[in-house]
Write a structure and sequence with these properties.
This protein is of the alpha/beta class. The chain has 20 helices and ten strands. It has two domains: about 290 residues, ABC transporter transmembrane region fold (Up-down Bundle), CATH 1.20.1560; about 240 residues, 3-Layer(aba) Sandwich (Rossmann fold), CATH 3.40.50.300. It starts with a helix and ends with a helix.
């Protein structure tokens, strides 16, 4: 603010110096004034230049800090959102808000903070010079500016609406691109390249129209400002000229006034353009703060306590749950996983098996009933401590575009090299890893695209083994493995499961015949339970599924 004030003051001083230049040097031809006035003009330019540099750099840094803090907070806030929020919101839309919207905010902040204060202060000093020279002329010259202000305000509202629509369209664009690039294999397989081109072209065309409309709205302020300023300067020349001719004013005073007015024109034009940019930034900010206003429902209760590992038996007590109000996923589930036992959930797709698993680490909370570990409701435990005691291997393998070493150690970043290799050996992954070009330093690509399905699954299993958690959740953990690898991994999983409380979801029933207990589920309910032999004797759902898979 200090450097802004200095910059604005020197701009006003430059206009004020026009009077001694015109009256003293040019009109009175006073030699003694040439050097002092010229020196003052040069000093004004030097001070103005350096003050402009310092205030611009400082204010830009402040603006960038504000936006960077918002971006960090937004990303952290999204990571804390419920899983249901991510299922209901397109990934591309979230990416667009974190990147595109915040970039628009960044531009608005940087431009507005560096220009708004400087332009406003410059106007104050220049207006002061004009009123000092001729208050009546200054008052008349500024009659046109309220009309300009009303026009700029109206254009700002239109700009805000257009920008909001543009940012929403950019979110849809990012979503389509994300879906297309991730599903490019299927796009090519079904020959839908032309369809996708047309879909993206339609979005790009809509963006083209919106961006052009935004530019038209923004650019419209320039001709309006030019016309109003032209009318004002004409009035100044006519009125001031007659005053000079009548001898009631000097040429220097008039030139100083005109210089101040012309110098004021540039900051006024900047202010009118800043309004359009500011409205764009506010429209983007609304979208960003919509996300910041989304609050997670799965959070720590006020008196939640850290989980202890003394008892890890898991119990579902009359649990009801639904993803939507009209479609219950679980209908009064009651089941038990005793400490140190392996319990399997089997049944047709849509029976609610994965939902049961998701309630244990509190990806969701039950609508009714309770899930307990060691007799304590999981909602009374802190989320961080609860999840620290759980290792998960899902059929949806999540690998990051990092090295194999980093992916295995994702749950334990402090693990030693020996521990990582041991976990890989136990998951039957070490052999294929060392045969890769960079071994454990090999980058796996986005979603592990550089690895086969079986290799990705074994990396995920190695990650769970390294986690060494007392509770193990396996959701189709061996679904992508060939017969030989599955046998090796099953042996490793048996070793891993020893002494741990394990819940297994399996469609391939041959992998759970040795489970301590099996629950057969259908339509969100447990319809049978018992050991493999018990369920075969009942000849119900489990026996039917086992028979369909070639079992006897």
């Amino acid at each position: 603010m200090i450097f802004m004030a200095i910059n604005a003051a020197t701009t006003g001083a430059m206009a004020r110096l026009m009077q001694p230049v015109m009256d003293g040097v040019f009109e009175q031809r006073d030699r003694t004034m040439v050097i002092p006035v010229a020196t003052l003009v040069f000093i004004a330019f030097v001070v103005r230049g350096f003050s402009d540099y310092f205030h611009s750099v400082m204010m830009n840094r402040v603006g960038q800090h504000v936006v960077a803090d918002i971006q960090k907070e937004l990303y952290g806030h999204l990571l804390g959102a419920d899983l249901s929020f991510f299922h209901a919101t397109a990934t591309g839309n979230l990416i667009s808000r974190v990147i595109n919207d915040v970039m628009v905010m960044r531009g608005a902040m940087a431009e507005c903070l560096t220009s708004l204060g400087k332009s406003s202060l410059t106007l104050v000093f220049l207006v002061g010079v004009m009123f000092y020279n001729d208050w009546l002329l200054a008052a008349g010259a500024f009659l046109a500016f309220p009309a300009a202000g009303v026009f700029v305000a109206r254009m700002g509202k239109r700009m805000r609406r257009v920008t909001s629509n543009t940012q929403a369209e950019l979110g849809d664009f990012a979503t389509v691109l994300n879906q297309t690039f991730q599903g490019v294999r299927h796009v090519k397989a079904y020959g839908q390249e032309q369809h996708e081109r047309e879909r993206v072209s339609a979005i790009i065309d809509r963006l083209f129209v919106l961006v052009c409309k935004a530019f038209r709205v923004s650019a419209l302020t320039t001709p309006v400002t030019e016309v109003l300023s032209g009318l004002a300067i004409v009035a100044v020349i006519i009125y001031g000229g007659f005053r000079v001719i009548d001898g009631t004013s000097t040429v220097g005073a008039l030139m100083s006034f005109i210089a101040a007015f012309l110098l004021a024109y540039e900051p006024m034009k900047r202010l009118s353009k800043i309004n359009a940019q500011l409205q764009s930034g506010l429209a983007a900010a609304e979208r960003v703060f919509e996300l910041l206003d989304v609050h997670a429902t799965v959070v720590d209760r006020p008196h939640a306590q850290p989980m202890t590992v003394a008892h890890t038996d898991i119990r579902f007590e009359n649990v009801h749950f639904s993803y939507r109000d009209d479609a219950p996923a679980l209908r009064g589930i009651t089941l038990t996983v005793e400490q140190g036992q392996t319990v399997a959930l089997v049944g047709p797709s849509g029976a609610g098996k994965s939902t049961v698993l998701n309630l244990i680490p509190r990806f969701y909370d039950p609508v009714q009933g309770a899930v307990t570990i060691g007799g304590i409701d999981v909602r009374d435990m802190t989320l961080s401590s609860l999840r620290r005691h759980i290792a998960l291997v899902s059929q949806e393998v999540a690998l990051f575009d990092q090295s194999i070493r980093a992916n295995i150690a994702y749950g334990r970043p402090d693990a030693t090299e020996a521990e990582i290799v041991e976990a890989a050996r136990a998951a039957a992954a070490h052999e294929f890893i060392v045969n890769l070009p960079q071994g454990y330093d090999t980058l796996v690509g986005e979603h592990g695209v550089k690895l086969s399905g079986g290799q990705r699954q074994r990396i995920a299993i190695a990650r769970a083994m390294l986690r060494d958690a007392p509770i193990l959740l396996l959701d189709e953990a061996t679904s992508s493995l060939d017969t030989e690898s599955e046998r090796a991994v099953q042996d490793a999983l048996r070793t891993l499961q020893h002494g741990r409380t394990t819940l297994v979801i399996a469609h391939r029933l041959s992998t759970v015949v040795d489970a301590d207990r099996i629950y057969a589920m259908e339509h969100g309910q447990v319809v049978e339970s018992g050991t493999h032999r018990d369920l075969l004797r009942q000849n119900g759902l489990y026996g039917r599924l086992y028979g369909l898979q070639g079992g006897r």
